[in-house]
Write a structure and sequence with these properties.
single chain; 329 residues; alpha/beta; Rossmann fold; 8-stranded mixed sheet; 4-stranded antiparallel sheet; 12 strands; 22% strand; membrane; ATP-binding; AAA+_ATPase; P-loop_NTPase; ATP binding
Length: 329
């Protein structure tokens, strides 16, 4: 049984008589101890999907449908109090910007202690000890001294380590990391990613890594899902997808990323911008930016087609047409 099993997750927003999907029919499975990368440009629905899985969209203007099973339990059927207990303990999340996620007028230690006491009946002294242990576990220098500092007194990398400490203080089974290396320089990025990988191994923790950086996915994820305009356009084992991309969008992302082997210095940007959720084109949402689009792309909604490699799928009419040609040959 998978630790996380998501089926047809859809997040929609209503504006008067209009409805638009931000995430549409996303399904995924994640085993304990594995890492899943979710990749796409800004606005592709990555963070929205993560927040829906975490149950953070239930009280807002968005409508969430589909099924999310965590460790065999249907999260939609949980009582609110039971779900709140799971959030932060069974499932934890690291948000994009630690400076906006941390309270600027509270000391770091007080914030972690508050988090601990919200989920456990701990004395302040016991919670303080757990907080110091968590800061030490994420590699913070002088963790006891750090308890007395405010967020603005820390570097970007240190603030991110504090966020990770708060997320893993209960040793969750699943950690969702939303762009955990945003705005960090390359050296600190590498340190944070190494820390996440080490914690996932030590705690036997599953990791969902949300990023726009294929280099991050290459070094971290066992499997990858590529999102475009809220839809899953390609998925599979990370090495297979990156070495043998089958969707034009995935190839475009790779072409716009610096070469990992240093052989090519020229980048090829993807022309245009992703469509607004209110103005998605008919057929394939990527067709207006795709160098391989043909007439049917404007009429047909591409469905995932299995590649020769097991578990590798791409939602592109090029493959559907190739499959039909083989069947009629």
């Amino acid at each position: 049984m998978a630790l996380l099993d998501v089926t047809d997750l859809t997040v929609s927003i209503n504006a008067g008589a209009r409805t638009a999907a931000i995430v549409e029919n996303l399904s995924l499975r994640l085993e304990r101890g594995n890492c899943l990368g979710i990749v796409g440009e800004s606005g592709s629905g990555k963070s929205t999907a993560a927040m829906a899985i975490m149950g953070l969209l239930t009280d807002g203007p968005l409508q969430v449908s589909g099924r999310v099973l965590f460790d065999g339990s249907d999260l939609a059927q949980m009582r609110p109090a039971e779900f709140r207990k799971l959030q932060g303990t069974g499932i934890a999340m690291i948000f994009q910007d630690p400076m906006s996620s941390l309270n600027p007028v509270m000391r770091i230690g007080d914030q972690i202690v508050e988090c601990l006491q919200a989920h456990r009946r701990l004395t302040k002294s016991s919670a303080r000890g757990r907080a110091i242990e968590a800061l030490a576990r994420v590699g913070m220098p002088d963790p006891e001294g750090m308890m007395h500092r405010y967020p603005h007194q820390l570097s970007g990398g240190q603030r991110q380590r504090v966020m990770i400490a708060m997320a893993i203080v209960f040793e969750p089974k699943l950690l969702i990391a939303d762009e955990p290396t945003t705005a960090l320089d390359l050296t600190i990025q590498a340190q944070i990613l190494h820390l996440l990988k080490q914690l996932a191994r030590d705690l036997n923790m599953a990791l969902v890594l949300i990023t726009h950086d294929l280099g991050v996915v290459a070094g971290m994820a066992d499997d990858v899902i590529v999102l475009y305009s809220g839809r899953d356009v390609e998925r599979g084992p990370t090495q297979e997808v990156l070495e043998n991309p089958q969707h034009p969008y995935t190839r475009g992302l790779l072409g716009a990323h610096p070469s990992m082997d240093g052989e090519s210095a020229r980048l090829t940007p993807i022309p245009g911008s992703p469509p607004s959720i209110w103005q998605r084109p008919s057929g394939c949402a990527f067709r207006d930016r795709c160098p391989e689009a043909f007439d049917n792309c404007a009429q047909e909604d591409p469905q995932p087609v299995a590649m020769p490699q097991p578990a590798h799928k791409a939602a592109c009419l090029l493959h559907a047409r190739a499959t039909q040609s083989k069947e009629t040959a």
